[in-house]
Specification:
The structure is a single chain. With 758 residues, this protein is α+β, with helices and mostly antiparallel strands. 30% of the residues lie in helices and 24% in strands. The protein is built from 20 helices and 28 strands. The chain has a seven-stranded mixed β-sheet with strand order 3-5-1-12-9-10-11, sandwiched between helices. α11 packs parallel to α19 (713-729). The radius of gyration is 27 Å and the shape is globular. The mean pLDDT is 96.
């Protein structure tokens, strides 16, 4: 059918967005609304001796100023995966005893205008007793280090092991060759296009209403109800259009709760819209880890063991999923889809006086792929084996699947060697020497890098929900429990349902983001939406057809009715009734809800091979990614255009981390990169001129659509492939992200000096 599964219709949401008719949180203008601003700590670590709000309250237009004393009776934002019983690091709406990072919320000012709220925030006087701060992992774990949390034994909150440590140690010791690297993964800021915002309202009859830009409303509703001390029926959460999430918007933040408290206290709606400075200071950061990694090989170049110890910076609070990111999310995928007999991964969770760290595009999987792909390329160089050949030797073959990786995962299906071969062919692997020689004639350094990645997509959830209603005009409205942040869900789900029901896409309307419409759902994250939400939409559509058949039997007074393309027909006759006619005659009779819950919930394993080529000008240190191609296995492609768009965005964020992005703290845990004047993000001219995109899919057996997640894959493959290409261009000199102009220039200078000396 037209625009069914596997085709690429234009995104149905784009006309609304491109014509300025999107509805983002800051677009909401409620009658009588007040505006709010947060007073943030300028210190990385300080005891709060006193807070004087009298001058702030005297600012014209200021209505109220709240501190911890005003909200202490509420619950705290929970860490949903606490791996340590040593300390809970409770994250209150406003801190009362200590500021633990630059940006920690101290007070919340509400006023008639934004300008008055900001002026009031500037007038709050806080008496701080500055304390020593620990900024880096090394600082935090040093003997005698200042503790971020006084009641914790140390800043090392937990050690999370996976795999067989003794066996890995023995295998590394017995290996014919061992490659070792210390790998640093820089801290980055998600920097979504739309900053965070929230609008709170309250009425005695209905309770709280919260509008915010997030990644799911149902789970937020449960947490908000618990923290505010009311039943879920007294909380409505709404989410309109969202300008980028990347994991960072999956969490509750203090401002979302503070606007609700203020709305109830003042009897008027309250809006808070963050500025970019708020985002850099208080939005969760990503990555931020150091790993000591070793990989062993036998005499034939086959991997014998992988052993990694990682110190993961959690920041000042254990964020909602923070402790899980480098442990269960990324730690279980370490080793990729290589044939590795024994793996051991040990992750330490470290507290520092910095912004909390949590999921950022890929959530542990880019970090894991980066470690193993850096190791594999370094080992190939040391062993004198081609970087393509070392992978070909060690990738699992289709006949070896399913394969248990020793870390709790079983890879189910795929053809990894075929993906590698196709990727090398598409990248014109054989033509590289000629391109390198041409660059050398221009005085440029030229390098290439590979990354073969695999990720866990759609894990962590056991069910998803969809709700269908049919209008008298025949429009089928499906509410889904996930939340688009720009991915194109309205298009993808409409394709699924249109294909299933045999209807034109114009007859399908997808709604999301309102707990009054659908109060259940696990939201968007981990590239799970289509595998889980698509299953729920299919089951809801099938349920609607079953209901329609029973209604049509009664209306047509027949025993057997068939359904096709929006029409129910009496079998063996020409008597029919349309979907719209049934809906008009039986209001609500076609409506229904489905819970998609497979008997054995399993993640999918998207995988692929990325190949990057870079050109470096040694005179300036400038690095350009001049060629980039990839082959991915995403199973069945619902909409190839949407998939390719996701890959482009993911590659951009991976490239940004490799070349530009770096959150830096200075003395006293002062944030030095708190604006776009100091923090680099990729622009159009930083990207390769073309991203060669191709797929070689093996349908996933875990869901009815056969899809595998694609939203994070571009980042996972881009980070190691681009860095490996840079290292290759620098004659194997190891360096860490970001590969800034200065770093690369200094390495080029030292290489030139060494070459001249020879």
């Amino acid at each position: 059918m037209k625009f069914g599964i596997g085709q690429s219709p234009k995104r149905v949401e784009d006309f609304r967005l491109l014509t300025g008719n999107g509805r983002f949180t800051d677009d909401i203008q409620l009658a009588g609304a007040l505006f709010a601003a947060t007073v943030r700590s300028p210190y990385g670590h300080a005891r709060i001796a006193s807070i004087d709000t009298s001058d702030a309250k005297a600012v014209p237009g200021v209505v109220a100023v709240y501190t911890h004393a005003d909200i202490a009776h509420y619950g705290v934002i929970p860490c949903l995966v606490p791996f340590s019983g040593k300390v809970t690091t409770p994250h209150a709406m406003l801190t009362g005893d200590k500021a633990r990072f630059v940006g920690d919320g101290i007070a919340f000012v509400v006023a008639e205008t934004r300008e008055a709220a900001r002026a009031g925030a500037d007038a709050v006087i806080v008496d701080y007793d500055e304390l020593p701060a620990v900024t880096t992992i090394a600082d935090a774990i040093a003997p005698g280090a200042t503790k971020v949390w006084d009641d914790a034994p140390s800043n090392d909150l937990f050690a999370f092991p996976l795999g067989d440590g003794d066996a890995a140690t023995a295998a590394i010791g017995a290996a014919a060759h061992v490659t070792r690297l210390r790998i640093v993964q820089n801290r980055v800021a998600p920097t979504s296009m739309e900053v965070r915002a929230a609008v709170g309202d309250y009425s005695e009859a209905d309770g709280f209403t919260l509008d915010f830009g997030g990644q799911g409303v149902a789970s937020a509703r449960k947490m908000v109800a618990g923290i505010m001390g009311v039943g879920p029926d007294k909380v409505r959460i709404r989410c309109g259009d969202v300008g980028g999430g990347f994991g960072m918007k999956a969490f509750l933040y203090p401002e979302y709760l503070l606007v609700l408290h203020a709305a109830r206290d003042l009897g008027r709606p309250v809006k808070w819209t963050g500025e970019r400075g708020d985002a850099f200071q208080s939005d969760t950061h990503g990555r931020a880890m150091v790993s000591d990694a070793a990989i062993g090989f036998d005499a034939d170049g086959l991997i014998t063991a992988l052993q990694v110890e990682t110190w993961s910076d959690l920041g000042a609070y254990q964020s909602q999923f923070g402790p899980a990111i480098q442990t269960v999310a990324g730690g279980r995928i370490l080793g990729g889809v290589y044939r590795i007999p024994v793996i051991h991964n040990l992750v330490h969770g470290i507290m520092t006086n910095t912004t909390p760290v949590d999921a950022y595009r890929g959530a542990g999987r880019p970090e894991a792929a980066y470690i193993v792909e850096r190791l594999v390329e370094a080992a190939a160089r040391e062993l004198g084996i081609g970087v393509d050949e070392i992978r070909r030797k060690n990738l699992l073959r289709p006949d070896e699947l399913p394969h248990a990786n020793g870390l709790g995962l079983t890879f189910d299906i795929g053809n990894f060697p075929a993906v590698l071969d196709k990727a090398l062919s598409n990248a014109d692997w054989a033509g590289f020497p000629e391109r390198k020689s041409a660059a050398a004639r221009k005085g440029l350094r030229y390098g290439r890098g590979i990354a073969y990645y695999v990720e866990i997509a759609g894990g962590g959830s056991t069910e998803e929900f969809a709700d269908i209603r049919v209008g008298t005009d025949g429009i089928v409205e499906a509410a889904v429990g996930t939340q688009s942040n720009g991915q194109g869900h309205e298009t993808a789900y409409a394709q699924v349902l249109a294909d299933r029901l045999g209807l034109p896409m114009e007859s399908i309307r997808i709604v999301q983001g309102d707990t009054d419409r659908l109060e259940e759902g696990n939201g968007t994250g981990g590239s799970r939406s289509l595998a889980w939400g698509g299953g729920a939409v299919i089951e809801a559509g099938d349920d609607m057809v079953k209901r329609g058949i029973e209604l049509a039997k009664a209306d047509l007074d027949v025993a057997d009715v068939d359904y096709a393309e929006g029409v129910f027909g009496a079998r063996g006759t020409n008597r029919t009734v349309s979907l719209a006619e049934l809906a008009a005659k039986h209001p609500g009779g076609l409506d229904g809800r489905a819970t998609y819950k497979p008997e054995s919930p399993r993640p999918t394993f998207p995988n692929g091979c990325h190949v990057a080529e870079v050109e470096i000008d040694p005179a300036t240190g400038t690095t350009k990614v001049v060629r980039y191609s990839l082959v991915d296995d995403f199973g069945v492609l619902m909409n190839p255009m949407l998939v390719e768009g996701q890959i482009h965005g993911g590659v951009a964020q991976g490239l940004g981390q490799v070349l530009l992005e770096d959150i830096v703290y200075g003395d006293g845990a002062q944030l030095l990169t708190g604006s776009f004047m100091d923090y680099g993000v990729p622009r159009a001219d930083d990207m390769p001129p073309v991203i060669g995109f191709a797929t070689l899919g093996t349908p996933s057996p875990t869901n009815p659509l056969g899809v595998k997640g694609c939203g994070e894959a571009g980042t996972i493959g881009a980070m190691p492939s681009i860095m490996n290409a840079i290292i290759d261009a620098l004659d194997g000199t190891q360096l860490e992200m970001p590969a800034t102009i200065e770093k690369v220039w200094r390495i080029c200078r030292s290489l030139d000096v060494a070459e001249a000396a020879e």
